[in-house]
What we know:
7 helices; two-stranded antiparallel sheet; single chain
Amino acid sequence: MPGPYDVAMTEPSLASPLDEATARVGDRWTLLLVQALLGGPRRFNELLEALPGIAPNVLSQRLKHLERETVLVSQPYSRRPPRFTYGLTASGRELAGALRLLAQWGANRSGAPDAEGLRHLTCGTPLEARWYCPTCTRPVDDEDAGDLRFA
């Protein structure tokens, strides 16, 4: 019987690039799992510790799903019993920017007085994410949203 992640991947074509992204990594545990792996490969029990509240069967399901999506790769470190370390692929590491943007958005809306987003370590200034067009050599702001298209 297919799981909830298998169903989304059998659709002939998804409506938008955002649909495609959310079908691959669009749930809480999957995004937190990718974040936990940004620091480098980890073993299953290390991931359980890094993600308080996740059930082992849910972690196992998410790991298998992300491996099918080529977001992470497993490497055996023990044959008996079979045990693996899990690390991000280049594709998985590309999610770091999206996770930073989501974390910044969450920090801005948390309501906590000490909630801070990313800061530049050299000078301590809060960072701002900007879209930039290398052809026009200018930033693209929210006012330009009507001129944006996914290719």
